[in-house]
Design goal:
Blueprint: H1 3-10, H2 30-55, H3 61-68, H4 74-101, H5 105-123, H6 132-146, H7 150-159, H8 163-191, E1 199-201, E2 206-208, H9 213-231, H10 255-264, H11 267-299, H12 303-335, H13 337-354, E3 365-366, H14 380-388, E4 402-403, H15 417-446, H16 452-480, H17 482-503, H18 510-518
Parallel strand pairs: 3-4
Antiparallel strand pairs: 1-2
Helix pairs in contact: 2-7, 2-8, 2-9, 4-5, 4-6, 4-7, 4-16, 5-6, 5-9, 7-15, 7-16, 8-12, 8-15, 11-12, 11-15, 11-16, 11-17, 12-13, 12-15, 13-15, 13-17, 16-17
């Protein structure tokens, strides 16, 4: 590949023979530019609020579920958490397809209305006399269904930005999503001051407490978001050079041009990018799921310590992700999106490889009768925690350590705290870089045609990963231990790196590919 072609992939210089030239070509006015970016910023906010809607109750679902329905167990909790991703997986391609043929306002407003209604239902799940847990299941599933609008958001941003603007815009929307995941639990922690009892408004049977206030806030913000979309969002489309489209009515576009664009899309690159994105979200879901049991088993943390320390780790992870999103915007201009994607997976592999257990020191064993057990080995993690937190005897009534039921605890070396924190740091660099670059490359591969359906399938891939990842890692970790779990993840990452290498030359902008075909 020549230097000229490499440069074209990052900043293509297209001539009048570019695809859809009869539809494009109007030089963008200053008024159009300002309106376009106001609309894009409204969708940044939409993505942020969607993330907040997911994370603002994630820490309180289990105690709230136990409070409203005593028949709910931990296995049902898994279904409640998975229902969000299931709803999003179903809704994403539907909303994406809708946005291809109608103004994007319609699916956006409908999806947010569904989320608002679902949050209100969540606040009232204590009212029915029976089967309350199923109402919570439905409520979280509908919140996820409403979150299917993220496909519309990314489709709109892809169609409303030029190639030069695309990476920054995709990084910004990913940063807003990460901020939502960070601040949601913070809001939840603030509302914990209200307490479990709170205040009850009998005339509308509404309880205002630490469990319901977060979702009521999410519902209010959703209503505010609807008004912003109604009065600020406008339909905008530009080509790869930023020239505005003469018409945003997709039904009036030239059928032959659309068919040509559809036929010119590199379907191999599309499928490969969906697989890569599945792996990206699969890895994050694995990390998110195994974080608490791993730290409790390896470092003998109590439940309170695990919640506190892992909460701090997740917040730090989110802050690190925001910094990475800002960094890749600059780095992509120098080395390109493909190199960052490949490098991000290499960093993730190194992070998980470091996490492999080694040495001759073993974790503390949680015996069936804690007080009659022999004195356990002291780990580096325990020493740190003893110095950092309250004395060990304060938690003497709670069995801590690696459960004896997990046979691997007896022969698997401890993962030292330094290993664990280094792995968290590296995954915190690789995951956000891979996530934003996958979205960016995908949008560029698709080109000028409406991307709603394709973005819907990409979101579906991510939702499927968030469902399958926890199931996979929970079984492997419980029965085989961290050595097998980490090794399998390293193998998956290696296969993904090989896949990226195989399709590396195909992960190029639609306009660049079109020029090569014409030549």
């Amino acid at each position: 590949m020549s230097n000229l072609e490499s440069e074209a992939e990052r900043e293509p210089l297209l001539g009048p023979g570019s695809p859809g030239s009869r539809e494009w070509g109007m030089i963008e006015t200053q008024e159009h530019y300002k309106s376009r970016w106001k609309s894009v910023r409204v969708l940044y906010l939409t993505m942020f609020l969607s993330s907040v809607g997911f994370s603002i109750v994630i820490m309180s679902i289990w105690p709230y579920l136990q409070k409203i329905d005593q028949t709910a167990d931990a296995s049902f909790l898994g279904w409640v958490i998975a229902s969000y991703s299931l709803g999003q997986m179903v809704a994403s391609p539907l909303f994406g397809l809708w946005s291809n043929y109608r103004p994007r306002k319609e699916p956006l407003i409908v999806s947010i209305c569904i989320s608002v209604a679902a949050n209100c239902l969540y606040a009232y799940v204590h009212v029915p006399a029976a089967h309350n847990k199923y109402y919570m299941l439905i409520a979280r599933g509908l919140v996820g269904f409403g979150a299917g609008s993220v496909a519309v958001v990314r489709s709109y941003i892809a169609g409303a930005t030029s190639l030069q603007e695309r990476t920054n815009a995709m990084a910004n929307v990913s940063m807003c999503q990460a901020l939502g995941f960070i601040l949601g639990p913070v809001f939840q922690t603030c509302f914990a001051l209200i307490g479990e009892k709170g205040v009850t408004w009998d005339f509308i049977k509404l309880q205002i407490n630490m469990y319901t206030t977060p979702v009521l806030l999410a519902a209010f913000l959703g209503i505010l978001n609807i008004f912003l979309i109604l009065f600020i969002l406008r339909e905008h489309r530009v080509d790869d050079l930023g020239r505005q489209c003469k018409s945003v009515n997709f039904q009036e576009e030239n059928t032959d041009e659309l068919q040509t664009s559809e036929g010119s899309i590199d379907q191999v690159a599309v499928v490969a990018t969906n697989i890569v994105f599945f792996v990206v979200l699969f890895i994050f879901a694995i990390y998110e799921t195994v974080l608490t049991p791993l730290t409790m088993d390896m470092y003998a943390w109590t439940q309170e310590q695990a919640v506190l320390y892992n909460g701090i780790i997740l917040v730090a992870f989110g802050v690190e992700a925001v910094l990475v999103f800002m960094g890749v915007k600059l780095l992509s201009k120098k080395i390109g999106e493909r190199a960052i994607l490949l490098g991000g997976f290499v960093v993730i592999w190194v992070g998980f490889f470091i996490l492999l257990p080694w040495g001759n020191q073993f974790p503390k064993i949680q015996w069936e009768d804690l007080h009659n057990s022999s004195t356990p080995n002291t780990t580096f993690g325990e020493v740190i925690i003893d110095l950092w937190n309250s004395p060990r005897e304060d938690h003497s009534d709670q069995p801590t350590g690696c459960p004896i039921e997990q046979a691997w605890c007896l022969y698997t070396p401890v993962i030292h705290l330094a290993q664990f924190l280094t792995a968290v740091l590296l995954v915190g660099i690789g995951y956000p870089a891979c996530s934003v670059m996958t979205y960016t490359l995908y949008s560029k591969v698709l080109g000028p045609k409406p991307q709603g359906t394709y973005m819907g399938w990409l979101t579906t891939s991510g939702s499927a990963a968030r469902i399958l990842g926890p199931v996979f890692i929970s079984h492997v970790y419980t029965y085989l231990g961290p050595r097998w779990a980490v090794s399998l993840v390293c193998g998956i990452v290696v296969l993904t790196i090989l896949l990226i290498g195989a399709v590396y030359k195909r992960l190029i902008a639609f306009s660049v590919r079109y020029m090569r075909i014409q030549e």
